């Protein structure tokens, strides 16, 4: 299993990247179109585009309302602050992308800053299924996702990270660090990297292609833990050579009969009901998202120019297929109705 994820706002700056990677006809061996997971932050997101990603069977997950540029804030936030950020962005996405199937069950914290027990207390209270923020140091073999009922099976990795120390009824879709070497037989050892775009030694499409193959082998030839490829779309947008290499590699993987590009939740569905390769083509939880149902809700979404008291002086456009709210949704007012300010 391979998971491709993207972080941050979904909008006209990156929709073309997603459309190219996840184009119609690029199918897994079971005939279903390959799927990705999008950890969505609120500001500048196009909710009609998110609605279309969801309609096509991709997974939408929470990445905060503010994406506040303060790592300490995320490490030290209390339960209420975490709830406003993550349950709040889930509410915004559900409302303005018309997502009604309770499928937004995962979160990833901005800057991969783990929020300690407070983050996971919030997740339990708000019925989130999994987190994908914790990074595991480069290891052979890599790790499978695990639950936080028990102690993490690796050290708390990263500078000043605030990992959970108590038991929590939450899955951790752990971010296995990637081996950034494109030729491990000749290169000296380098520190691992969690986000693909943080593997700063990759300079050419050929290097990136070799890097993908090497990391696939690390997973495929050992314990077959899911291979996670975690991106910011801007990295591919600025490097057409990398974009081309990724698509070439994905197509080559799909020529095999035992590699599937799936969402985070689909990985957990398989782990909860392990199914042999001989039967995986008919694995019901994966087939559920196979058929794209219905037509896009709107071809010309409302482009709502909105303000909020919480961001004085800013006017931000919110693109949605539903009616415009009164105000730009934010922490204290996720519906855009100013309910929090009514006396």
TrEMBL record:
A molecular function (GO) term: hydrolase activity, acting on carbon-nitrogen (but not peptide) bonds
Pfam families reported in the protein's UniProt record: Polysacc_deac_1 (PF01522)
GO annotation (BP), single: carbohydrate metabolic process
Boundaries of every NodB homology domain copy: 2-113
Official protein name in the record: NodB homology domain-containing protein
Species in which this protein is naturally found: Larinioides sclopetarius
